[in-house]
User: What shape does this take?
Amino acid sequence: MMPNAVSAYLARQPVFDPAGLTRFFVLGLPLGWLEAPTARFLAHFDAAFVPLGDAGLTLTAETTIQAEAVLARAALAMRENGLVRGWRNERYTVFVPGPDGAPDLTQPLFSLERAAFRRFGFTSRAVHVNGHTAAGALWIGRRAASKSIDPGRLDNLAAGGLPEREDEFACVIRELAEEAGVPENLARHAIKTDALRVTRKETDGTHDEWLYGYDLLLPSDFTPRNTDGEVASFTLMRADEVIARLDDFTWDAGAISCGWLQRHGH
Assistant: This one.
C-alpha cells in the first residue's frame, strides 16, 4: 500500500468543468447548469425559459411559487421525454446560495422532485455516515443493483439526500435506521466531521451537492442490517482494505471515507 494512496485517490476525484454547459438563472440567481439538449428542450417547452445568449438561460417568474410551478411542469415533461429518470416522488429544496456557495438555510426558494435536480444542475444536500469500530475498521455497504444511481458500488454505512423540511441530524438518524438498522439511541452519537461540496458532470446532468459527513463509533458486536432494500450487503473492512477498494466506491462515499482515513492517520 503506497503511503500517499489516499491523497492520490482524492486527486483523481472529478473536477467540474462548465465547458459546454449553460448557466441557469432563476429569480435572477445563478442556481444551476444545463446541458445543451436540456437548454434547448426548456426554451421550446415554455416561453418562460428565455435564452440569454452566451450568458445562459433564465426562467422568468414573478414569485417563488410561480417559479416552482413552471419547474415542476418542466420536470414532468422531461420525465416523459426521457431526460429525467428514476423518479422518486421526493422533493429537495433549492436555497439562496451564500457567499461561499453553501445553501443559506434561512432563505429557501422552492422545492422540486429530486430526480430532476441533476438535469437542472441545482445544488442538493446529503448526509454520509462512516460507521467504524474501536479496532479501526469501517462498515462498508454495497448499493443495491436496483438503485438508479451507482448501482452495485461501495458506499458508506448510511447515506442519503436531505428532503424538504427535514433537519440534517434527523436525516442522519433516519438514514442510519433505514439503511443499516442502527437504533436511534446509538445513532444520536454520530459526530459531524465534514461539510464539502462536490460538483461534476454525470450522464443525467450536473451533480452539485454539499456532503455532510459524520462518524459513528459502533459496538464490536453490532452488525448492520438493511431495512429499505437500498443496500445489498455490508462488509467490515480494515483501513488498508478500504484504501485498496477506493476505486469501487461512489465518488461521494469515497471522499467521505477518505476523511475518516485521514483523521485516523492514513
In short: The longest helix spans residues 64-80. The longest strand covers residues 205-217.
